[in-house]
Design goal:
Two copies of one chain form a homodimer. The first copy, chain A, is an alpha/beta fold and about 190 residues long. Chain A has helices spanning about 5-10, 30-45, 60-70, 130-140, 160-165, and strands at about 15, 20, 30, 55, 75-80, 90-100, 105-110, 120-125, 145-155, 170-180, 190. Chain A is about 30% helix and about 35% strand.
Chain lengths: ~190, ~190
């Protein structure tokens, strides 16, 4: 069991409806030393890849991505979820559906921040049905850039996102893959990696 | 002139309506090494303060806050801008008005992440009219916690937010204070610090 799985068992809370609350260390309060460990682990898993940029999506991907980026010495671009009046100029747009928020969002990245020379590592906190991730992949490909890999903190292995993304041939590395969880007992079972 | 002022002159773009676009290094694409320099500078300016937590607000405050937090070895809490279905339980709520997005938002922090023992450093990317910041201060005070200081990347010195916050007695440190800018010439004038 790795450091993140241990932390999930210690501080995660399982709620009805397959909700795993990790807001005390991952996506509301953020344990920066944990993020640093995640960065070191992603660096190892994507060793040798010519990554020159990290792409993530607001809001809860940003903190992880920025700390991970220190291990790769690259800038981070975060995709925005709705058109802001400050986001002018040419933009890449993908439409994604959010499991948590039960709504559709436009995912937007200014074109000037992704180009065909970019080798991109995508980072996010959660992977469930993979809609957000597919939107990010679509944006990287619209730019003619290369997806070198995808690093996720927690994957819900019982949802289809991870399988779809791996079937497409991407190197997807999830630090913890939840196979099942039980709101009554609070039990969480991880896939062996 | 400090490193951030230099970077603004190099890569910032002045737009009509007193908009300063810094999206190539601060709030869309993020220069993590610049954030690290900002962290070192805030550490110096808040030396001796018993800071045990950093509070910021989604989305563009998060990246800066997480990298700054590495200099203080403390966790980061980010306030959310709208009620999410994953954010259950007791919450502190403040209503703030956004200059950029021309709308009102509820700023929300789960009560369990702020308590009377907390000594909080508030971090954000921009300070203009100070509404978001006043919401964050209100939330810290609702929790009975202490605002030890406020660290801002770029303050618009020609708007009232900075003066109001300083008049309230808070230690507000802005790494760059823009006195005036001119969309036609692209010129930016900083307040001497």
């Amino acid at each position: 069991m790795n450091f993140l799985e241990e932390r999930i068992l210690k501080d995660g809370i399982v709620k009805e409806g397959n909700v795993l609350k990790v807001d005390s260390f991952l996506n509301h309060q953020m344990d920066i030393e944990l993020f640093d460990q995640m960065g070191a682990e992603f660096k190892k898993r994507f060793e040798g890849k010519p990554i020159n940029k990290i792409l993530t999506i607001e809001a809860s991907g940003i903190g992880i991505a920025c700390v991970v980026a220190q291990h790769f010495h690259v800038p981070v671009v975060f995709a925005k979820k709705s058109k802001s009046i400050n986001l002018e100029g040419e933009m890449y747009v993908a439409q994604v559906e959010s499991f948590t928020h039960k709504c559709q969002n436009n995912v937007i990245v200014a074109q000037k921040f992704l180009n065909p020379e970019d080798h991109v590592l995508i980072i996010d906190d959660f992977l469930a049905n993979g809609c957000a991730l597919q939107g990010l992949i679509q944006i990287v490909q619209s730019a003619g850039a290369t997806v070198e890999g995808i690093g996720i903190a927690i994957e819900k292995g019982f949802q289809s996102g991870g399988r779809i993304i791996r079937n497409l041939g991407f190197q997807l590395e999830s630090l913890a893959i939840v196979e099942s969880m039980d709101a009554e007992t609070g039990n969480v079972v991880f896939r062996e990696q």
